[in-house]
Write a structure and sequence with these properties.
The protein has helices spanning about 1-5, 10-30, 30-40, 45-50, 70-95, 100-130, 135-155, 160-165. By secondary structure, the chain is mainly alpha-helical.
């Protein structure tokens, strides 16, 4: 964990993905935004008519309409599960590929939302099975349907956290200059000086004319 926090751009990427995921669940928790979505995209209500959870979980402070507090708490818990699963997926990517390129970081952020939405959708499907008092097969079907439709929503909106993650990719920087990185000097031993010594016998001195034996 300490090594991950020291990596450049690691924590900003995780925070960006978590922030976008949190923003999505908060946006779906706003009644005007939810009303506009269902009014312009009526097909999104078809899975809900079949018993699958609608869209991504919504983070609210008060229940919506006739829904009670238990359902509100389940939705808020599903929102926390979505964000937590997305963060874990992004951390795993950064741990394995800390120097990933922008396309890989985009794909990691995209799959982070898919993972979070599928996990939260599975939980919401189980909550629906509990509410309708389904049997063992119903629990399995509702959970699988919730995970599947959650993954579809994550696939459609995953480019948002993916784009946020790519903004946190920093270009590679040269290491700071220091004693270890300074230009190495030529410390090779100097070439041995070739000392030429005249070891030949000295030339015979010319005999002087006045030299006597």
């Amino acid at each position: 964990m300490r090594q991950l926090m020291r990596l450049p751009g690691a924590e900003p990427a995780v925070a960006a993905v978590a922030g976008v995921c949190l923003l999505l669940v908060l946006l779906l928790g706003l009644t005007p935004a939810l009303t506009a979505l269902t009014a312009h995209e009526g097909m999104t209500l078809v899975p809900s008519a079949l018993g699958a959870p609608f869209a991504l979980p919504s983070l609210r402070a008060v229940p919506l309409g006739s829904t009670g507090w238990p359902q509100l708490l389940c939705e808020d818990f599903a929102s926390a599960v979505l964000v937590a699963a997305a963060v874990l997926r992004m951390r795993r990517h950064l741990r394995r590929r800390p120097e990933a390129t922008r396309p890989r970081r985009l794909l990691a952020g995209w799959t982070a939302l898919i993972t979070g939405a599928a996990t939260a959708g599975g939980w919401r499907g189980l909550v629906t099975a509990r509410m309708v008092e389904a049997g063992p097969a119903g629990w399995l079907l509702y959970g699988a349907a919730g995970a599947a439709f959650g993954a579809v929503w994550g696939l459609g909106l995953g480019w948002l956290p993916g784009a946020a993650a790519t903004l946190c990719v920093r270009p590679a920087q040269a290491p700071p200059a220091g004693p270890a990185n300074a230009a190495t000097k030529d410390v090779s031993p100097p070439a041995a000086r070739q000392v030429t010594t005249d070891t030949s016998p000295p030339a015979a001195r010319p005999a002087l004319e006045d030299e006597r034996p």
